[in-house]
């Protein structure tokens, strides 16, 4: 019967030999692709269909003296994280005062556009930086974080339509301070929050956001006319 000390040595030895036989980081090469379907969010009350194709910018005055936003990225299949999904993207957001065209001011398609991706799924959005707004005018600080609404329709009907919202890092009204509940507005999801840099000029904030959609779609959040 081996001594206790010998057994201990044997264990160490086996552990050492085994660790030598295993590749150091077996999961880094291959393995399941790392992405998850982009979470849906509520459509909210301010969507209107038929926004014109995006031109250079989607808000009037986007080249004037206030903050601008540029977001680029790709629409991709969520099962392999790489198959491009050429899509039609409708975007809409509040102007710098937190007002939506067609609702709080009379310019139906200001800060709204329909954007076609390239065949490789790449989109380009250039606009004014969206303003924040309160969801209840009577409640001080009932703000939502700045956001852009997206309705993404892949040309291949095998993938569903995705309605979601994009948020920006370090916004003080992100979850848990978003006055729209996380069950419908999802600002608790870090995959919907982009970080921004301004390397072009001090007022132009740029971010990159890829969207993943699975066959059959990522689901819907139906909050009726509520939401925001
Ligand atoms: C939009 O225009 C109509 C007609 O001129 C006016 O009655 C209405 O108050 C305007 N609405 C807003 C939000 O400016
Ligand atoms: C956000 O909150 C909702 C509602 O509680 C929850 O269903 C969802 O899983 C959360 N998302 C993340 C990414 O934590
Ligand atoms: Fe909104």
UniProtKB/TrEMBL annotation:
One of its GO terms (molecular function) is ferric iron binding. Residues 44-213 form the Intradiol ring-cleavage dioxygenases domain. Residues 1-19 form the signal peptide. InterPro entries: Intradiol_dOase_C, Intradiol_dOase_core, Intradiol_RC_Dioxygenase. Belongs to the intradiol ring-cleavage dioxygenase family. This is Intradiol ring-cleavage dioxygenases domain-containing protein. It comes from the Eukaryota. Keywords: Dioxygenase, Oxidoreductase, Signal.
């Amino acid at each position: 019967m081996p001594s206790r000390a010998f057994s201990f040595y044997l264990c160490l030895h086996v552990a050492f030999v085994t660790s030598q036989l295993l590749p150091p980081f077996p999961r880094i090469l291959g393995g399941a692709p790392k992405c998850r379907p982009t979470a849906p969010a509520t459509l909210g009350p301010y969507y209107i269909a038929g926004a014109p194709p995006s031109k250079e910018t989607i808000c009037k005055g986007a080249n004037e003296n206030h903050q601008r936003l540029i977001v680029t990225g790709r629409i991709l299949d969520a099962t392999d994280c790489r198959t491009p999904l050429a899509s039609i993207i409708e975007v809409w957001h509040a102007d710098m005062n937190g007002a939506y065209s067609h609702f709080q001011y009379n310019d139906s398609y200001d800060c709204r556009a329909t954007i076609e991706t390239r065949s490789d799924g790449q989109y380009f959005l250039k606009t004014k930086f969206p303003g924040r707004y309160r969801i209840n005018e009577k409640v001080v600080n009932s703000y939502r974080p700045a956001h852009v609404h997206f309705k993404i329709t892949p040309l291949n009907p095998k993938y569903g339509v995705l309605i979601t919202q994009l948020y920006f890092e370090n916004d003080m009204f992100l979850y848990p301070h978003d006055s729209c509940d996380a069950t419908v507005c999802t600002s608790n999801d870090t995959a919907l929050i982009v970080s921004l840099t301004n390397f072009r000029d001090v007022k132009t904030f740029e971010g990159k956001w890829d969207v993943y959609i699975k066959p059959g779609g990522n689901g819907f959040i139906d909050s009726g006319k509520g939401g925001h």
